[in-house]
Amino acid sequence: MNQYVKIIFLVIFLIGLISLFLLNFRVEGFTSENGEWSYNTKIDFINLQQTINPGIVFDTNIIQDQVSENDAKYFLKHSKWNWSEETQQKYLDAVLKNQYIRNIPQDSLNHAMSIYNEPAILEVLFIQSKGMLTGKNVVHHSNEDTYRFNSGLQP
User: Fold this and answer.
1) Helix (H) and strand (E) counts for the chain?
2) Buried/exposed code over 130-146 (b: 16+ C-beta within 10 A; e: otherwise)
3) This model's pTM is above 0.70
């Protein structure tokens, strides 16, 4: 009888331990104000990006902190991010000012819109404009910069 009591307590203890682990399991970090995308949206996004931008790694954890699931669904429907007219014009101005790379500005815009969401491209344009104005490389350390560098989005 004593042996059965020990087994019952062991089973209860293990069930309790597993329950505590499952209830407390969460990803460290901050919660996005945009909310987390559904599993299907994440999978569809990755699949589409692998088709139109092979070789570029996209981290949906970072991207969903920048844009909402509705923005991602827009991307899935149109194969490009929804940028405001102002952001598009800022990008085209930056392309036209680039003295090292000459290409068709509208082609460059379409390609960039297939990679960068609006908050990401605005940060890139801001960083580049500070570097252009001062003539110096701007060192800006953030998770987004690390992501762009590691993913191949930033040389």
Assistant:
1) 8, 0
2) eeeeeeeeeeeeeebbe
3) no
